[in-house]
C-alpha cells in the first residue's frame, strides 16, 4: 500500500513544528473543521510569515489559541501527525540544564504574557461561546455524512428509485440525529471538566421513549423534547452536581455515591424542569426563524449575509452551531445556513476583483489563486486573513456582496420558497448536496445558485469600483509580476532578435 498521503501529511506537520517554536513550545493541540489549534508557551517564537509561506498553510489566525488554517480534510490528517512529532520531540529532547532565573528574564516573561493576554482579549462572553462551540464542532463530520445520506434518500424517494434501499438509507441518516443529545451531553461534560460518560447518561434521559409516561408542568413529556439545548443544560447541571459531590463526599464512598447522586439529581431536574423549558426555548427558536424569513426575508438575509464575515473574523460563527442543530432537529434542515453561506460568495467576488485591480502585485495574486478553490467550497479564512482583511476596504465590500446574496435567498423565503441545509459545516458549492426545501430540488438548487452568483457579482463590482483608493492602488501595485500585463501598455513585448 502506498504511504504517499501519510508521508505528505507528516511532511506538513514536520514543516509546521519548528516554525511554532518546536515541541517544547506547544502545550496543547486540537483541531476544528479547518484549523489546527495549538496553545503556546512563548508566542514570540512563532515565525508567522514562514508559516504563511508553506504551501499547505492557507492562513494563520491569532485568537485564544494559535490557529493554522489547513482546510477541511487536510487538518484531520495533519493533526495526528503533528501530535506524534510533538511527543517524539519531547521524549528525544535532552533535559535542560538548570540555571538561575534573573529578574530581567522574569520581567521579560511577564511583559510577554501581558502582551499575549492583551492580544487575545479573552472576555468571559467570548470564552463561553468558544466552549459551547467546542461541544458541537466534533459532531460536524457525522452531521455532514448523515445530512448527505438524508438528501440522497429524499432524492431516491421523490424519483421512486430503489424502493428497497430507501428505508435503509433513512435509518442510516436518522440514527445519529435520534441520539445526538447523548453526544452533546458527553462533549459538554468533557468540555466543562466533568466525567463525560455521566454527562451522556443524563442527556440520554431526554431521548428515552419512557419519558412519554411522565407529566411535567401539566403536560406529558415527549421523547427528544428539548433536544440539544436540553442535553446541554442537563450535562452542565451534571458537571456542577458532580464537582460538588467530589468536594463533599468522603473519598472512600466517592466511587459509589458521586455517580449515583449526579445522575439522580440531574436526571430528576431534567425530567421535571429542563426538558420542558428547553423544549419551549427550542420551539421559540424555530418559530422566530420561520417568522423572520417569511415576513422579512429579504431584509433579514441582507443583515445576516452582511454580518457573517465579521463573525468568522472574530471566530464567533461557531456559536451558531446549537441554533443550526436545533433547527435541523425540528424541521430536517436549517434555513439560516444557505443565507450565511452568501458571505463566502461576497468574499470570493471581492478576491477576484483584487486580483484584477492589482496586476503587478504578484505575491498577492498568487495568494488569491491558491485560496480561491477553497473559497468556492466555502472555506473563507484564507481569503479573509490573506487578502481582504489586511487590505481593509475589500473586507467591507466583500460584506456588501454577502449582504446582496443573502437578500436574494431571503427574498425567496419571504415568497414562500423556503429551503435549508440538512447539515452544518459545508458552504459554497459544497452545500449543494445538502439542500432541502418545500419546493422541487431543481428550484431549490436554482435559487441557491442565484444567490451565489449575486454574491460573486456584487462582491466583485463593489470591490472593483469602491475597494481601493488611488493611494492604495499606487502603493499595492508595485510588486512587478513578469507574467502580468501592464495596465497601460498591455502584455510585455517579446525582445527583438539581433
UniProtKB/TrEMBL annotation:
Compartment(s) of residence: Cell membrane
Q: What is its main location?
A: membrane
Residue limits of the PTS EIIC type-1 domain?
Answer: 130-482
Membrane topology recorded in Swiss-Prot or TrEMBL: Multi-pass membrane protein
Active-site residues, Swiss-Prot/TrEMBL: 32 (phosphocysteine intermediate)
Q: Which UniProt keywords apply?
A: Cell membrane, Kinase, Membrane, Phosphotransferase system, Sugar transport, Transferase, Transmembrane, Transmembrane helix, Transport
- Where are the compositionally biased (Pro residues) regions? 488-498
Location of region: Disordered: 477-498
Which superkingdom is the protein from? Bacteria
Q: Record's InterPro entries?
A: Glu_permease_IIB, PTrfase_EIIB_Cys, PTS_EIIC, PTS_EIIC_1, PTS_IIB_1, PTS_Sugar-Specific_Components
Residue span, PTS EIIB type-1 domain? 10-92
The keyword Translocase belongs to this UniProt entry's keyword annotation: no
Transmembrane region(s)? 135-155, 161-185, 197-218, 224-241, 253-278, 298-323, 335-354, 374-391, 403-425, 445-466
Entry keyword annotation includes Transferase: yes
Any idea what this protein is called? Permease
Organism, as annotated: Streptomyces virginiae
Ranked from the top, the taxonomy reads: Bacteria, Bacillati, Actinomycetota, Actinomycetes, Kitasatosporales
